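INTERNAL AUDIT FORM
Audit reference: QA-55
Scope: verify that the stored structure record matches its stored sequence.
Auditor: D.O.
Record contents follow.
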Amino acid sequence: MRVGFIGLGVMGRAMALNLLRGRHELTVYARRSASLDPLVDRGAATAGSPAVLAGACDAIFTMLTGTADVEQILLGENGVAHGARPGTLVIDTSTIDPAATRSIAAGLGERGIDMLDAPVSGGPGGARDATLSIMVGGKAGTLERARPLFDCIGTKVLHMGDNGAGQATKACHQLLLLVTAQGVAEALTLARRCDLDVGRVREAMLQGMASSRVLDFFGDRMVRRDFDAGIESRLYHKDLDIVMSLAHDLGVALPAGAVTMQFINGLHGRDRGRDDLSALITLVEELGKAPGKTRAQ
């Protein structure tokens, strides 16, 4: 299939490479030429604008930072909508606002362009290894058209409902991930203050009901004090803002989400938005007295 990809960051670049490995004909667009080079070196073509890319493709993926970015790339001047033919498939794998997603899908639909919102989970490792979980909103028939493409980037595809349902599901996912990460930071801080070996405490929790992938992945980074970003915390800040806005619109109380948002705001207030989410533990530690003696980890 002739596939376009827009958004070649850490996640998007790996996903696009896997589409190439799946023997799809790939065209890419990015504002920075350096982002294009790894794909061009492996045979991808380039386009000078999203509209030009759309005219050369049967399906177009986007993996962008925020809602406004997706709106601009798909519907703005020289956007995908101005180059795509009726019947073209747009697959947005970004994490953005569900209501805006429905509006974008409607705008594309007026031009005969089909859209799926298909946010993913699995992080850079899942993108690299093609083991992402994909939460899809859109028509069932449109999803079936996209399955050969999804097979190149993920191992689990869940149809959640109509347009916007994929993004709403991702919002719930991010809420649980972030609240859990906050809980991990607090538990390991308490362990340190109890003068325990925090690495062994994490191992014990991984064997109990408290076990989770968040504890496994982010807990390991907290224990090792490795705060170099896998995914920068500023992106989780954006995601949780979407969650809290959605909850506000629906009249849903999210007290744990609100507390977690304060800590992620704290990272930004310290100019640490490019640190990994695991840096949450440093803010929890700051709230108490000086940490207790740390045993060898």
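Auditor finding: record pair retrieved intact. Residues 179 and 259 are 9 Å apart (CA to CA).
Action required: none
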